[in-house]
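Look over this record as teaching material.
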Amino acid sequence: MADDKPDVAWRVIGGLVGLATAWGARKLLGFIWVKATGKEPPVDPDSPEVNMGEAIGYAVVMGVGMSVAQIVVNRTAKKRYDSWRALKPVSPKQ
């Protein structure tokens, strides 16, 4: 039977990895946006001063980019964590 107890270590590590991924992906996507468009990313895409096409484009790029980054990094981190746990000796339950 599988252990139903949540793995606290993974929850902490996963949260930290998520924060770092979000920060890094936002910086990278902002850099790519500047290189592709020649303009800074919109600070507030909801502002009427931002062109509708630019706001939608920015939302699509950020949404897809952030999601892909989270999936790739979380899966990789979980795989590494699980392989590390498999190498760690388990003490017998008493």
User: Anything to note?
Assistant: The mean pLDDT is 84.
